[in-house]
Amino acid sequence: MNTLAYGLLSLLSHSSLSGYDLMLRIQPFWPAKHSQIYPLLARLERNGMVSCELVQQSDKPDKKVYSINDKGIAALQEWLTVPASDPVMRDELMLKAFCMSHVDPAVSRELFAARLEHYRNKLERLCQKIKSVRQVDELEEDQMPSYQSPYFGAYIMLNKALMSCRTNIEWCEWVLAVIPVEEASVE
Amino acid sequence: MNTLAYGLLSLLSHSSLSGYDLMLRIQPFWPAKHSQIYPLLARLERNGMVSCELVQQSDKPDKKVYSINDKGIAALQEWLTVPASDPVMRDELMLKAFCMSHVDPAVSRELFAARLEHYRNKLERLCQKIKSVRQVDELEEDQMPSYQSPYFGAYIMLNKALMSCRTNIEWCEWVLAVIPVEEASVE
DNA sequence: TTTATTTATGTATTTTTTTACATATAGAAT
DNA sequence: ATTCTATATGTAAAAAAATACATAAATAAA
């Protein structure tokens, strides 16, 4: 039972999902490819954590829908009592930023302009998603889901993503403001 | 040449460092253990990217100090022209947050209280570091390093870390404010 | 004087993650 | 008709990362 396994159980604790859906939904929090998800789901099924049901579809290929079992819920509850390990962030841009002074400012500006664009797109997607969650949970203006609501966790995470995204945009804009536009003159 | 290899070159582009120092310094941007660093440095040396010199020390064990070569600098300059890949963030707390509603609010509060403490400690370390960088680069109030300064990159990264850390603290405090203190009453 | 910690470097093994290989259905576009 | 994309599931192989195994010098603490 590694972190990804618990992550899958966590997603399944609110609704039954296919491996493909799990793969798409876990991306923002714990990036993983389908080649990691499918074998892990099979293992979780062997361990009795989840159950699987084949669902026929007419408009799309058939799928296997996984549901969490009591054993899976118990594993989650146990897992929630142990402190979360420190977050791990790996950002190539940070490594590039460190040696930026070795290239023309224009090259550096390009890197940060691309990243700014990336965060602006992300912000737009997040705003739409937060709106849809508010709609699904039938929330009024400035109201948030109750602790018991399955949307409580999703809501606080979306809020974090939103806050982080805005901070990152602010930072990129600041960086673009402090990198000289013209090639710096040599005295 | 993977990202970690470029990361090591990036750090070496401003000053010669031992494998041990590189391991400590790359942590905030690209976590890596010494078992990854040492063999990679040997490979970079074989490829002519870096050179190595044995330095005797009297107060501590001897060390191998690595310096970047022209070939290493050229590799960095080339690398800086290709867009940075998307940042990867893996946070177990996010996965736990999603299934929080399955346990008592007190259990959830504990998770976020611990994380808040983590970020507060980080903020303190960052403030000290930013102060020391300002001192080393002999900066006056509200002045920042020039683009050519080797501290420019370090400065903008420290600023990002600072901004992110504050946002995370704000978020943790908000989460602790919205998680009910008492066990929620059942109607 | 023994023990613990920090600094310092390395290898071996295991786990995790990514990339590539492989197949297949359904709809949309060309 | 063919191609492309999204959906859907799987395995094989390679790369990256973490853990464990190993050693050692120097200092500080018990």
Automatic annotation (TrEMBL), chains A, B:
Q: In its keyword annotation, does this UniProt entry include Coiled coil?
A: yes
Q: Which InterPro entries match?
A: Tscrpt_reg_PadR_C, Tscrpt_reg_PadR_N, WH-like_DNA-bd_sf, WH_DNA-bd_sf
Transcription regulator PadR N-terminal domain sequence ranges: 8-78
> Which positions are tagged coiled coil?
109-136
Q: Which superkingdom heads the taxonomic lineage of this protein's source?
A: Bacteria
Q: Which SUPFAM superfamilies match?
A: Winged helix' DNA-binding domain (SSF46785)
Q: Give the Transcription regulator PadR C-terminal domain ranges.
A: 89-178
Q: Give the UniProt keywords, A-Z.
A: Coiled coil
- Gene3D superfamilies the record matches: 6.10.140.190, Winged helix-like DNA-binding domain superfamily/Winged helix DNA-binding domain (1.10.10.10)
Its recorded name reads PadR family transcriptional regulator
What species does this protein belong to?
Answer: Cohnella terricola
